[in-house]
TrEMBL record:
InterPro entries: Methyltransf_11, SAM-dependent_MTases_sf
CDD domains attached to this UniProt entry: AdoMet_MTases (cd02440)
GO molecular function: S-adenosylmethionine-dependent methyltransferase activity
Origin species: Falcunculus frontatus
Residues covered by the Methyltransferase type domain: 74-167
SUPFAM superfamilies in alphabetical order: S-adenosyl-L-methionine-dependent methyltransferases
Protein name: MET27 protein
Family matches, as PANTHER family: METHYLTRANSFERASE (PTHR43591), METHYLTRANSFERASE-LIKE PROTEIN 27 (PTHR43591:SF101)
Length: 241
């Protein structure tokens, strides 16, 4: 069964570290917090039962045509490499990552899963990649209030190949609803303009454990989230054969 009121069952230190990075602090301060959190990040998100990396990688693999080993992927806001681990398990081998936190990148580098890693603060700097470079781009867990702004979507599209995939996630907890509405408006606008087409918007009830009662979905002790998969237009036609 699902533990009830779990936000309260989380270690206080974990709760405090998660709350700190989600609080409305300015970006430089938040990046410093991530630097300091990097060494403990994976054990903290394990305590949170954070399922986004697994769910996102599974959804992307489902949409992605085989073979995967040659496909170039960019993991944006890659953190310590949780998404790379899940993608690697599913046969993706050519992984590049960017993150705004040097401490997180150091952890990501130690996984040995990335061919390239760059320090890049999304929303203030362009991605360090040429146009149409990647078969897929993932942004898992970073599209949220006070984190990566929804204005980065065109930049994510720029580095994606025509016909390539974008896998994005956001949370549906109360304090992120305004951001989520903004994000969905921006996603829809790009779809109407013919920049990409939506393949999936999957609402997930048990995304991660809530850190406070107020954030939890109807007292479950969990917050919910969404996985979106888009395909950049024009989508190449399959060769008649």
């Amino acid at each position: 069964g699902v533990p009830v009121g779990t936000g309260m069952g989380l270690p206080a230190a974990v709760r405090d570290r998660v709350a700190a990075v989600h609080r409305g602090s300015a970006l430089p301060e938040r990046l410093r917090l991530y630097d300091g959190w990097a060494a403990r990040y994976e054990q903290d998100v394990a305590a949170l039962e954070y399922r986004a990396p697994h769910l996102a990688a599974a959804s992307l693999s489902f949409a992605f045509p085989a073979p995967r080993a040659e496909a170039r992927l960019l993991d944006v806001a890659c953190g310590t490499g949780l998404v790379a681990r899940e993608l690697h398990r599913r046969g993706f081998r050519c992984l590049h990552g960017v993150d705004g936190s040097a401490g997180m990148l150091e952890q990501a580098r130690s996984t040995g899963l990335y061919q390239e890693l760059w320090l890049c603060v999304l929303g203030t700097e362009p991605l360090p990649a040429p146009a149409g470079h990647y078969d897929a781009v993932t942004v898992v867990g970073a599209l949220g209030e006070g984190q990566v702004p929804s204005t980065v979507l065109p930049e994510l599209l720029r580095v994606t190949k025509p016909g390539g995939f974008l896998c994005l996630t956001t949370r549906s907890n109360p304090s992120n609803l305004r951001y989520k509405a903004e994000l969905e408006a921006a996603l829809g606008q790009l779809e109407r303009s013919g920049a990409w087409q939506k393949l999936l918007a999957q609402e997930v009830e048990y995304w991660e454990r809530a850190t406070t009662e107020e954030e939890s979905t109807e007292g479950t002790g969990y917050i919910s989230g969404v996985v979106y998969i888009y395909q950049k237009c024009p989508v190449p036609h399959l060769e008649e054969g």
